[in-house]
Amino acid sequence: MTVEAPGRALKLEPIRSIKKAPVEEFYQSGHRTCQGCLSALPMRLMAKAAGPRTIVLGTTGCMYVANTTYMTTPWVVPWMHTQLGAAGSAAVGTSAGLKALMRKGKMKDEPINVIAFCGDGGGADMGLSAISAALTDIEYNLLIFLYDNESYANTDIQTSGQTPWGAVTTFSPPGKKFRIMQRRWKKNVPGMLAAGHPDTRYVASGTPAIPVDMMDKVRAALRAGGPTYIHVLDPCPKGWHYDPEHSNELGKLAIETGIYPLYEVKDGVLNFTGITKQIAEGRRRRKPVREYLEKQGRFAHFKNQDYAYFQKKVDEMWEQWIIPCVVAFSYGGPINITGDIPKVRNRNVKRENASWAGEPGHSHEEFAETPDEPQEPWRDDNELGRYPWALPSTGQ
Predict the structure, then answer these.
(1) Which fold has domain 18-302?
(2) Which among 18, 168, 211, 343 would be 20 to 30 A from 136, CA to CA?
(3) Where does the record place the Thiamine pyrophosphate enzyme TPP-binding domain (predicted)?
(4) Boundaries of CATH 3.40.50.970 in the chain?
């Protein structure tokens, strides 16, 4: 038996083309984000796609601090601040409150969008339990919108569960003894939520670097009914250390290299979208991850063995996962799935009776013999034109 969420959702048609995007702006100028910030753009696109009959809830983070200068705000639609980690709770409470007021006749009975946004620290880490709980409350229509700049950027770039392997943060500076301090692979939040919440009708990933795809997914989530979730990658000039003019380029490169996939899970059916769909269907080749990593100062300490290890991990996502880049289990992996030729995701880890033993799967020492030729395109010597794909140095 399928339980449907009562209440009505706004009928929002797909946009499909930038020329058909709404002209009205419901997130306007006046915010105080950093130059080149790609976290402000998804707020604008999300509000534009949702339209005027929308209530926005924002947890503490970059998009709260930057949008609440004293007595001013860029939000045209009603919005409310909520506590760090409380996006899921605030969304359920607001949706339930609206439903109760409409039932009692205290306000007009009409479909109203409820969108709660959070950062990766406040959502993927501290707020994950509240988001999980919200996705099980299928009687309420709401959207959890997580903007992911891969760190606790509001408090000066600390490591979060979304910080990539090897990246420099204030909590993971490289040193002489340990060059790689961030040894955790990025948490797979949208895949985890899609797999763990089968009653959730819509889960998707996106990026403002591909604006139409992101706006269409916002509309798809809002018209699906019930609780929904969208995960959005937002390059951050301050935390990633690059020139602000390259934010959109890096957002696209994350997809083109296969590091960050675009997909949607609608009523339990997975569909890749955009560039990721072309890669999955073999119509497009993934770019080397080095093209993406070496454009960011947070990876400036990488040696060739680090690039090789990162590439290997991304290759495994595409070649060994049951669902490429979405479901992370593989034959011979951490659950008891057997096959004629088990695929072990990390050669430095021993497999014993379908369980893991040995060192954690983040070691890159298997590439220790990789020659480390002087190849540092983030340096000013790129003026010689030796590495045409590299961006100019920002001096950071």
Answers:
(1) Rossmann fold (3.40.50)
(2) 211
(3) 60-232
(4) 18-302
